[in-house]
Amino acid sequence: MHTLSLLQGSGSGLGPLLLNVMPIAVIGLIFYFLVISPANKQRRKTQEMLSSLKKGDQVLTSGGIYGTVQGVEADAVYLKIAENVKIKVARSAISNVITGNS
């Protein structure tokens, strides 16, 4: 009879389990919307900017070098940084495309 009463009482454990899991799920959702989602949007925006680079764009590298795109390869970009001075930088080193009003 003792075993029968233990089996009957085990069905009511769903409520407390749900109450214990709920705060973890809420924290996970908050973390997703505050950290993961904005990071994904920023990464997507950066990838779009890098894929749309073309000759003549004014850019800023992550090292702080301003230049004009002279050529584009799969993983590299050729920049003109001064008269008769061209450098080859990794495409991922381009941090910003400078617009006309900057």
Question: Which SSEs are present, and which pair or pack?
Answer:
Layout (H helix, E strand, L loop, with lengths): L1 H8 L4 H38 L6 E4 L4 E7 L3 E7 L2 E6 L3 E5 L4
Antiparallel strand pairs: 1-2, 1-5, 2-3, 3-4
In short, what is this structure?
The chain folds into 2 domains: 1-52, no CATH class; 54-102, SH3 type barrels (Roll). 45% of the residues lie in helices and 28% in strands. The chain contains 2 helices and 5 strands; from the N terminus they run ααβββββ.
List descriptors:
about 100 residues; alpha+beta; single chain; disordered N terminus
Number of domains: 2
Shape: rod-shaped
Low-confidence stretches: 3-9
The description of the largest β-sheet is: 5 strands, antiparallel
> Which strand order do you get reading across the main beta sheet?
4-3-2-1-5
- What order do the SSEs take from the amino end to the carboxyl end, as H and E? HHEEEEE
Q: What percent strand?
A: 25-35%
* Rg, Å, rounded: 28 Å
Number of helices: 2
Q: Give the fraction of residues assigned to helices.
A: 40-55%
Give a structural overview.
- The structure is a single chain.
- The chain is of the alpha+beta class and 102 residues long.
- It has two domains: 1-52, no CATH class; 54-102, Roll (SH3 type barrels).
- It contains two helices and five strands; from the N terminus they run ααβββββ.
- It has helices at 2-9, 14-51; strands spanning 58-61, 66-72, 76-82, 85-90, 94-98.
- Strands 4-3-2-1-5 form a five-stranded antiparallel beta sheet, with helices on one face.
- A hairpin with a 4-residue loop joins strand 1 and strand 2 (66-72).
